[in-house]
Amino acid sequence: MDSKLEVYIEGLNEAQRAPTLHKDGALIVIAGAGSGKTRVLTMRIAYLMSQGVDAFNILALTFTNKAAREMKKRIAGIVGSNEAKNLWMGTFHSIFAKILRFEADKLGFPSNFTIYDTQDSQRLISAIIKEMQLDKDVYKYKQIQNRISSFKNSLITVKAYANNPELMEADAMAKRPRVGEIYAEYVDRCFKAGAMDFDDLLLRTNELLNRFPEVLAKYQNRFQYILVDEYQDTNHSQYLIVKALSDRFQNICVVGDDSQSIYAFRGANINNILNFQKDYDNVALYRLEQNYRSSKNIVEAANSVIEKNKTRLDKTVWTDNPEGGQIIVHRSPTDGEEGRYVASSIFENRMNHQMMNGDFAILYRTNAQSRAMEDALRKRDIPYRIYGGLSFYQRKEIKDVLGYLRLLINPKDEEALKRVINYPARGIGGTTIDKLIVAAKHYDRSIFEVMQKIDQLGASMNINRGTQTRIKNFVTMIQSFQIMNEGSDAFEVAEHVAKKTGLLQELKKDGTPEGVARIENIEELLNGMRDFVEEQKQLADTTGSLAEFLEDVALATDMDNDKGDEDRVALMTIHLAKGLEFPFVYIVGMEEDLFPSAMSMNTRSELEEERRLFYVALTRAEKQAYLTYTESRYRWGKLVDAEPSRFIEEIDDKYLDYQTPMNSYRYKPLVDADIFGDIDKSKLRLKKPVSGTPPKVGTPTPDQLRKLRKIRPTSSDAPMPSLAGQLEAGTIVEHIRFGKGIVAGLEGKGQDQKAEINFENGGLKKLLLRFAKLKII
Ligand code: ATP
Ligand code: MG
């Protein structure tokens, strides 16, 4: 073995080493968060290569393309980049899109098929609903798109749907009896447009492997070793692909954690991991128990939460890491305050612990929660990055440029064509487009093909001479781009297209700040393409063609666009955070009906999935975790009362540090520097009040719980203006944390009045009276 690799393998613990060095056959590693599953997968690949397995014969499937790239880099560091280049590594979607391009003709698709993103799919479905003259309030296009997606992920084809009375009845009951027809039309239109949606990439791969035994044999032979990360979140379609490909050699290694299965709503099937041992012969099962990521407190708190789930495999997770601070629980009156608290806490932690912005993550249940956080971070000038919102490639001006690029690669692409045919305006209006769509349907051709024959067909379609000429000019322009594309890389083509189509001029004419921002975005796109071309040439032995770029973009998740070169706080949903780690993690909006989500509390299994989600969130933290909640929050446009999430109460008390309902109630950053003078901040956390309103009891009864969630600030939380008048030098007071003390002096007036007090447990402190919880004795 290579000495470098040896060092790496020595760095693994024994439990990790065993699956890393496992010989052929099927193996599964089931282990809790942070125990090194991903690391084992990486090392195993390097090890296999050191044993003479050709990189071409290894297929590794990861959760994001970024994870794949990082893995590849790490392996390149061990075995050399020339070797690592040839590994097949990526998400299910990206790997099988590549294979489908090779084999597209077998399925009747062009090899340059377009990949429709969710927005394209929704637009097309919406157009079909309109064409069929259905009530769009009954046939909601997003819901229909979801339904079609779930059919596809369960491998229910149009034909299978038509033969399934139960499904049809379900749709009829929902007063949408024509879902089957929409599905059929949608599939047909995608096919004619030479387009596959995300689900097709899996569905069509299954079709390919089922219908063509020689193709199956070819890929079985190619992928002699298959490795899958996050196996607990594979759906049925993905499961079947892995099963088919690994059937011959059975050299399959999957790693996962049933406690982190969080994609059931998108069809992930936890049974895939539970049944793995039945699916293959002589499966070796490995368990890892030592967590290397998080402090003891975090690991144990997370354990205490996930234990509440009934459906789970028994696992032990422990750590040798330092105990770390307790998890801080913080209550705010509103989400605005919650944002301010998080922002100032990040600000302080960054200073006190010499952290970078990138060491912090704010995790939430739903994307909408990011706004309050963003506002607060902006106000404090803390740079941040949102993952998963409207991604760069979804912006209008970017989609416009990409529309032209997609069209020149695949002129049948209906959604791209409709997007750009009259933008910038060139006198081909809506009526003309409708006529073209009708004609395309009539002749069973794509719209572009009809446009190419507009000379012959124009008159019969009632399209006048002038419009015909404009259509011809458009066709000629696209064809000229195609010619250019043959000898140029992605960047060169795109730059040419942005200029020649008039897109840039159109935005320049606009002249508003938004217009300027849009031009900058297009420039950013072009910069990105230039980088892509360079990287492709270095990392992957290809030319950086436009077709390659478009595929990369179509499959990019937001995580992938993170160049990692900017130091920013990360904001994302918990779903996106899977597999990642950060020193400081803030889990915000810890409220009933938000987390757990109101939509997920109907059945035990839904609630258990929410709990797994919480487990994922908590286990992202290395050093310190925060749980924050508010007392009221705007939801659906109304201010509603909020109750703390049951998940907070499920954590054993000893792991928590309640900052409520103490000073934090009116937390004003920076002010507390005044309150506490220059004492050690790490000792600043307020312990649970010894007496007074208990924010939490040992193991509360359901009734107590209900009451507990309703705790509102009591009079003892409110400022005590009267106190000021009663204090003077020499007054003896008692503070909830510092114990008894004697007032040494007073300064300031009104809201700003402070008292200097000599405490028995804390020495001399300056406290802002507005906040100080003092009792005169
Ligand atoms: P998750 O379930 O969240 O995906 P995981 O089981 O995949 O977690 P890894 O991400 O592989 O865990 O590892 C967690 C952290 O622990 C990483 O920072 C990794 O580098 C580190 N780690 C894993 N094994 C070891 C080890 N033997 N020695 C030191 N650090 C380790
Ligand atoms: Mg992992």
From TrEMBL:
Start and end residues of each UvrD-like helicase C-terminal domain: 296-579
GO biological process terms, semicolon-separated: recombinational repair
UniProt superkingdom: Bacteria
SUPFAM superfamilies: P-loop containing nucleoside triphosphate hydrolases (SSF52540)
Catalytic reactions on record: Couples ATP hydrolysis with the unwinding of duplex DNA by translocating in the 3'-5' direction; ATP + H2O = ADP + phosphate + H(+)
GO molecular function: 3'-5' DNA helicase activity; ATP binding; ATP hydrolysis activity; DNA binding
Keywords tagged on the record: ATP-binding, DNA-binding, Helicase, Hydrolase, Isomerase, Nucleotide-binding
All copies of domain UvrD-like helicase ATP-binding, residue ranges: 10-295
Amino-acid positions noted as binding ATP in the UniProt annotation, renumbered to this chain: 31-38
Protein name as catalogued: DNA 3'-5' helicase
